[in-house]
Amino acid sequence: MKVRGIIQKQVQCPACNTILICSGNPGEIVKVTCPSCGTLGKVTFEQTFDTPTKIVEIQSVTKTFGKFTAVDTLDLTIYTGEIYGLLGPNGSGKTTAIKLLCDLLRPNEGTIKILGEPLPCKSIMNQVGYMPQDAAIYLDNTVHENLFFFGGIYGMTKENLEKKEQEMLEFVNLQDWSDSLVSTLSGGMKHRLSLACALIHEPNLVFLDEPTVGVDPELRATFWGYFESLVKKGITVIITTHYMDEADHCSRVGLLRQGRLIADGRPRDLKKSVGVDSLEEAFLLLAGQEKS
Predict the structure, then answer these.
(1) pLDDT band at 109 (very low <50, low <70, confident <90, very high)
(2) Cα separation of 152 and 146, whole Å?
(3) Distance CA 157, CA 163 (A)
(4) The pTM is what?
(5) 287, 288, 292, 289: which is closest to 259 by C-alpha?
(6) Among positive and negative, which fits the CA dihedral 212, 215, 221, 225?
(7) Using CA atoms, how far apart are residues 166 and 218, in angstroms rounded to an integer?
(8) Which CATH topology does 80-107+118-290 take?
(9) β-strand 109-114 against 54-65: which pairing, if any?
(10) Which of 16, 96, 113, 233 could form a disulfide with 37, with the two C-beta atoms 3.0–4.6 Å apart?
(11) So where are the chain's domains?
(12) Torsions phi, psi of 103, nearest 5?
């Protein structure tokens, strides 16, 4: 699968109706200025692929805990190079779905394929990164020791680890805490370290469970910028969130309610389908349709 190169897009200035021809890479958001009236704007170039490659295939998956159904007959296909968002309120089944995809839980019914291989499959795990909702890091070790431990698990060389460690420390803004014990860090800092540990080995597929919870707005924007840069490299990001405003960063989203996928598609298409301007409104309307 190859991402197509530079593409051109014709847009119309909303202020003076001047037609502009803009160029950009797939998945890129380009700032533009109208040469006629000076209006500033942004143009989004959609991520396009020569041959869409299925990286996640979920068929009729159900997961129950006793009498409670956490995931109910889930069917979903995700393609290489997407940012796919699983959105829904707390208790909608997002975390259970991620754990099923990471093979931390087994479905009661249905099948799952990751990177073309049916789960369970240990051979693909080096190509997968996972950040759980609760930080899975070692409190009695330093930030540096945690990064080297997780990088070593994935078979990274010392040279690659040293180079990647600095990049990840800068990304999560923990450069000054490399030698600090994790137990001394704040909750938000632990969350950021957990994200760095999930990404240090540059996996082809990344599962991120609520990665922006407890993160300040500035760092939250930095995170999304980094996620988008991963996609430009052909890496697939599957992310859960209950922040509906984050959906616009995603190539596609799946709306979950009580374990069921009630809608799947591009954010703007989902909003357009019910004639609203926000995904939160779309979710409420689609949830109402699903109940009836």
Answers:
(1) very high
(2) 10
(3) 10
(4) 0.75
(5) 287
(6) negative
(7) 20
(8) Rossmann fold (3.40.50)
(9) antiparallel
(10) 16
(11) 7-45, 80-107+118-290
(12) 65, 25
